[in-house]
Amino acid sequence: MIEFADVHVRLGRRDVLRGITASLPERRVGVVGANGSGKSTLARLVNGLALPTSGSVTVLGMDTRRDGGRIRRGVGFLFTDPDAQIVMPTVAEDVAFSLRRKRLARAEVERRVGEVLARYGLADHADHPAHHLSGGQKQLLALCSIMVLEPDLLVMDEPTTLLDLRHSRQVAALLEEMPQQVLVVTHDLPLLAGFDRVLVLDEGRVVADGAPAEAVAHYRALMA
Ligand SMILES: Nc1ncnc2c1ncn2[C@@H]1O[C@H](COP(=O)(O)OP(=O)(O)OP(=O)(O)O)[C@@H](O)[C@H]1O
């Protein structure tokens, strides 16, 4: 459950979000809107990477202003650019790095890493240099590094931007399967088809909120 209560965000001299109020219990929540409408800022509010100037954001029952650290341990955040998330030389080492704070036995780390790489189709690349992967494979690697931590909630900022149609469909199928709640910021309108709810942002406000077909139609009209 994600709850925005009259959230305003002012960055520099700009009102980036202007009074967002929404309770989001749905499993698949999409956010669309024009460039600069405030989508990434909204996503960053969910794990306390951005804080409201006024109003409050409650995630997993905690206030992001007070409990940012605990919230970040429960919320996986996937950025657009997977290169920004790759920190270790090989694919398997990169996923294992996510588990460093768990103090697990080496065999258990290997088991979990092997399992997640197999689930996301990267098992054959385990010992390959992470930076040699294709853009789509890097995006899947970034997802593995998050999912190995079994987050309670996943936030994705334009996860399919770099992906070809096949990898975009793979990400869509993975989103469909995941038991966790997922909030996805995207310009990829077909990705939203199976979602439970879609918010449309315009100049920092929610201007449509509902089932994907209606929300996307509203967005298309706005962009016309
Ligand atoms: N640190 C900052 N200081 C000042 N303005 C900022 C800052 N970060 C973002 N902004 C501005 O806030 C507005 C919203 O940015 P945001 O990245 O949330 O939009 P977005 O909807 O995700 O855009 P895009 O689709 O282009 O990624 C933009 O006009 C941006 O220039």
TrEMBL record:
Domain of life: Bacteria
ABC transporter domain boundaries: 2-224
Xref: InterPro entries: AAA+_ATPase, ABC_transporter-like_ATP-bd, ABC_transporter-like_CS, ABC_transpr_CbiO/EcfA_su, ECF_ABC_transporter_ATP-bd, P-loop_NTPase
The keyword Glycoprotein appears for this protein: no
SUPFAM superfamilies, A to Z: P-loop containing nucleoside triphosphate hydrolases
Molecular-function GO terms, alphabetical: ATP binding
Keywords: ATP-binding, Nucleotide-binding, Transport
Any Pfam family: ABC_tran
Family named by the database record: Belongs to the ABC transporter superfamily.
Protein name, per record: ABC transporter ATP-binding protein
Organism per entry: Nonomuraea antimicrobica
